[in-house]
From TrEMBL:
Pfam families per UniProt: Cytochrom_C_asm
Positions of transmembrane segments: 6-27, 39-60, 72-88, 95-115, 127-155, 181-204, 219-238, 245-267
Membrane topology designation: Multi-pass membrane protein
UniProt name for this protein: C-type cytochrome biogenesis protein CcsB
Organism of origin: Desulfonema ishimotonii
Organism taxonomic ancestry: Bacteria, Pseudomonadati, Thermodesulfobacteriota, Desulfobacteria, Desulfobacterales
GO molecular function terms noted in the UniProt entry: heme binding
Leader sequence segment: none
InterPro entries cross-referenced by the UniProt entry: Cyt_c_assembly, Cyt_c_biogenesis_CcsA, Cyt_c_biogenesis_CcsA/CcmC
Cytochrome c assembly protein domain boundaries: 66-271
GO CC aspect terms: plasma membrane
């Protein structure tokens, strides 16, 4: 028999999928009502997703990140929330064609994985862990948005350089707007990840007795942080903008994905609980 949480998962996926369809329809037909429909549907899906996360939190008594099923769901929820916030702030409508499908795909994969974790570790109830996971995921969601903006920038730049004014030219914002929005995403992501790493150090100290243990996840998180720190440095000091910044944002997201998933699958460490099957 289908439970309440199962129903919430299905409702969330349906709304995220319908939002994806609306955004792609907006990309093709450029009708304002299609964009409004996409954002409203995504917002409704986010409300259902919030209810799911809250229900799971109350049921298990800790942050829902005990296995890959829960971790992906949490990541998809934060991704949708961060996008809605940036959408309200910057109004970059077409970015929904990148974020809505990503949120949908994340939830579909999550729904196909085992739901019940092997064990419920008391350390997952730590305040520092909750702070660490939520803030880190928020920063990574902002980096995901930066990747999406970077892809849109390269598409628009190519359309301008070819001088054919093809499909994307009239459907994407100006290069200046894309560049400034991508920069805002990176600044936000870098700030949040920095705070998240600091809270992670405090959590590690309280659980394992040391701030740093050279765990593969810690090492790759450091590499990711250094990558985006270098990107910001080059932008502010050397003047990296436009194409270079867009390409680096995309590469940075690939590094992020490996840090988020690849490390736990291919390298052993004490962060493996978050992506156990």
């Amino acid at each position: 028999m289908m439970g309440f949480t199962d129903l919430l998962v299905i409702i969330t996926i349906i709304f995220y999928f319908l939002s994806t369809a609306s955004y792609f329809a907006y990309l093709f037909f450029q009708k304002d009502y299609l964009h409004r429909l996409g954002i409203y549907i995504l917002g409704t899906g986010f409300v259902a997703h919030t209810t799911l996360i809250g229900t799971t939190f109350m049921h298990i008594g800790s942050i829902p990140a005990h296995n890959l099923h829960q971790t992906l769901s949490l990541a998809g929820w934060i991704l949708a929330g961060v996008f809605l916030t940036f959408q309200y702030r910057f109004g970059l409508r077409v970015l929904g064609i990148f974020i809505a499908p990503l949120a949908t795909f994340t939830m579909i994969i999550s729904s196909r994985l085992p739901i019940t974790p092997d064990r419920l570790d008391e350390s997952f109830k730590s305040f520092w862990l909750i702070l660490h996971v939520v803030i880190i995921f928020t920063g990574e969601a902002a980096f995901a948005l930066a990747c999406g903006v970077g892809i849109l920038y390269l598409l628009q730049e190519h359309a301008i350089k070819t001088k054919k004014r093809g499909f994307f030219f009239n459907r994407l914002p100006s290069l200046e707007m894309l560049d400034s929005t991508g920069y805002a995403c990176i600044i936000t992501g870098f700030t949040m990840v920095t705070i998240g790493l600091l809270s992670g150090f405090l959590y590690a100290r309280s659980i394992w007795g040391r701030f740093w243990s050279w765990d593969p996840k810690e090492v790759w998180s450091g590499i990711m942080w250094l990558f985006y720190a270098a990107l910001l440095h080059e932008r502010l000091v050397v003047g990296w903008r436009g194409r270079k910044s867009a390409i680096m944002s995309i590469i940075g997201f690939v590094v992020l994905l490996f840090t988020f998933l690849g490390v736990n699958f291919f390298l052993k460490g004490h962060h493996g609980d978050f992506t156990q099957w």
